[in-house]
Structures are given as C-alpha cells and as structure tokens.
Design a protein that fits this description.
This protein has about 400 residues and is of the alpha+beta class. The protein contains 13 helices and 17 strands. A five-stranded antiparallel β-sheet has the order 4-3-2-1-5. Strands 8, 9, 10, 11 and 14 form a five-stranded antiparallel β-sheet that branches.
Length: about 400
C-alpha cells in the first residue's frame, strides 16, 4: 500500500506554528498543511528539504513551543559559537510599557520602530518585542544554513556581528531611558522616520561606553523635542573619536549664550583646530567678539548662559569698554554642546577667568545671578547676585 504524503496535521502541527529541522537548525513557519514559509517565500516540503540539508539524513520536524511575548523578549538569545549571550529586553521594554507617561511612551514608540513594530501603545511594544526575537531567529537561520554548507568561520562571523549590533543598540536605548522621569511631558510631535533610520543605523556600531551616553542623550533629546539634532549633526557625531569628544567636554564650560566659545579658554591651539576640523566652530578670520560700554558709576547685566546672568559694576568716573573675543559655534556645534553636562565647579572656573579679565580692565565688581525663568527674550533672574 502506498504511504500517504506527509501532512503537518498528521502530527498535530497547526498552520502558523514554527518548526525546526534538527540537522541544520533552520527555523521555518508552517504556511499550509504541506508547505512552509522561509525568508518570505513559500516552499513545498520536498523541494525545500532536498537542497537545504545534508545528504542521506532523515529530517524529523520538531514543533517549537511558542512562548508568550514576555518570555520571548525577556530572554533574547544570539548564538556565539557554542556559547549564548543574553540581552535583557524586559529591563528596557517591559518597564516602558508599565510606566504610562508621555515621555516614556514616546520612547517606547521610537524603540518599536527600531525593532520593526507597527502598532501603537502596548500593542506596538509587544510587537516590537516579538520582532526583536524574530530578527534573532532569522540570524540563527542564516548562521545554520552557512554552517550546513561547511562555512563555520563565516557562520561565526555573522553571529558575532549581529550580536554586537543588537548589544550596542540596546545599550544606547538604556542610556536614553535614564534621561526620562515618570510623569515627564514631552512634545507630541513625532520623530521623523528618516531621522530614526539614520540614528539606529549609526548606534549599531557604537561600542564605547562614553559615546553610548552621548548617543543616549541624543535619542532622549530628539524624543522630547523633535528637530533638536539634524542629520548633519548625527553624521558629525558618528565620526567623532573618543579623544575628540573629550575636547568638546573640555570646551563646554566656556560656552557663552549657547552660541559661542570664549577664545581665551583653556583649550590649546591644537584642540581648537580639531574643533574646527570637526565642523563645530566657525573661524573665518572675522575677529568675532562681544563688546560692552559701561558708563562711570553704572552697572550692566547680560545673559551669560541659560542658567546665569552676568552683572558688571563700574565705580570709576570713566567709561569702560570691554571686549570678549569668541569663536562662533556652527549649527552642529550648538546642538552637540547641549549634550554635555557641565559641573558647577567647572563653570565657576570660567566665571573666575572672566572676572579676572574684566577687573583688569577696571571693572569694580563682577556678579552672577541665577536665572529663574526665560520667556522669549525676557529673562527673569534673582535679585541677589553672587560676587566673583
């Protein structure tokens, strides 16, 4: 009697379930009772089994138990030779779903984009989690197929490369999450899809911990206020070395009005040239400067940063003319400098440097006043200043 053709229903395997071929480790999806789906294409069983597997091997089909969404993403595995590396996506995505705030919900929406989600809210996050596991399964399939063809070294290369990309992306997302607080309200303007594409393509390659922190700040800042960081800025950041980033951090305390760098800061000529080569400052030999004229027995106040107002007092009978030479920051420079946190101690060093310069020109008293609020061009600051 002729044996009937194999049907998945004979084994109780349902359409839509995943199965694996033991000899090669390939994962496929059941498309119908006698066909499977692999990498977006539909195959009948016999034509697929023959070319895909080693010769003279009987291939049993083993149903895979499909776990819940939380289980899939709680342990996202990438094969590294005989070892396995675990990434805890629950820490990132689970928390984002549970904390129902505007800022974190928008971050979740953006992360879902990175992993291929298409819905919104918790459903989108769940789909993003499932898709992250699906991406991993596809990578495992690719690795298994390469190994079946005898390319062990190439298979390990693919596994390591994809694992590194996922690890880097998750690390940056964790940095971004730390810059949101529960209940924080952000702009409801969506983040541009082209921007998201560029961002996540870049951060796949960011392995340095300090640079990951910078990229995490970029993602958080763009989610809170879209168009904060241009595509040009992303490319400049992408090409920054760790040493160049350190120079930017060194320059940050000497930024005036968030638009210019004090020319007589502690930067060396070489460091200044590096900032220019990176496209962060503009120096076209124009002799840019701030200048003020303070009459005798008069005082003058001006914005120094978005946190401090500078106060100058002239107790003499004569007018005093002050000039501060500066480098103008480029658009990318202005955007990147917002990523740097400046300590009060470092800022005080800058204020002290300015005070010594002004007093050498005859200014009697130099004070700084904490800014209370900014409304357009109106700056409200405390009446009592701190003398330097």
């Amino acid at each position: 009697m002729k044996r009937p053709r194999f049907k998945f229903s004979m084994c109780g395997i349902k359409i839509g379930e995943q199965v694996t071929f033991d000899p090669t480790g390939l994962f496929v999806k059941v498309a119908s009772d006698d066909s499977i789906e692999y990498e977006g294409r539909i195959y009948k069983l016999t034509p697929f089994v023959g070319p895909s597997c080693p010769t003279n091997i009987v291939i049993p089909l083993v149903p895979i138990k499909v776990p819940s969404i939380s289980h899939i993403t709680g342990k996202c595995w990438m094969r590294l030779g005989k070892r396995k590396k675990q990434f805890n996506l629950d820490k990132i995505m689970g928390a984002l779903v549970e904390i129902n705030t505007d800022g974190l919900a928008k971050l979740a929406d953006t992360i879902s984009f990175a992993f291929g989600g298409t819905a919104r809210g918790e459903r989108k996050m769940a789909e993003a989690k499932a898709y992250a596991a699906e991406l991993e399964a596809k990578t495992n399939n690719k690795v298994a197929l390469i190994k079946a063809q005898g390319e062990e070294v190439l298979a390990n290369y693919v596994a390591v490369k994809e694992s590194r990309k996922l690890r880097n992306t998750i690390a940056v997302i964790e940095k971004a999450q730390s810059h949101f607080t529960e209940g924080e309200k952000v702009s409801d303007e969506p983040v541009d899809e082209g921007w998201k594409n560029r961002f996540f393509n870049i951060v796949e390659e960011i392995s340095d911990e300090e640079l990951r922190e910078i990229w995490g700040r970029v993602l958080a800042g763009e989610i809170k206020k879209p168009k904060s960081y241009s595509l040009r800025t992303l490319e400049i950041l992408r090409n920054l070395t760790k040493e160049e980033a350190a120079i930017i951090v060194k320059a940050a305390p000497f930024i005036i009005k968030e638009e210019s760098l004090y020319k007589d800061s502690i930067l060396s000529i070489t460091e200044t040239l590096i900032l220019r080569e990176c496209g962060l400052i503009i120096d076209e030999g124009l002799g840019l400067e701030y200048h003020w004229e303070i009459k005798g027995h008069d005082s003058y106040c001006t914005s120094l940063t978005n946190r401090w107002v500078l106060g100058l007092q002239n107790d003499s009978d004569s007018m005093i003319k002050l000039r501060l030479q500066i480098y103008k920051l480029s658009t990318a420079g202005r955007e990147i400098i917002t990523l740097i946190s400046v300590s009060d101690a470092d800022r005080q060093k800058f204020f002290k440097l300015l005070a010594n310069t002004f007093k050498s020109k005859g200014i009697s008293h130099v004070l700084i006043f904490p800014v209370v609020s900014i409304d357009g061009d109106n700056i409200n600051y405390e009446e009592k200043g701190i003398e330097i």
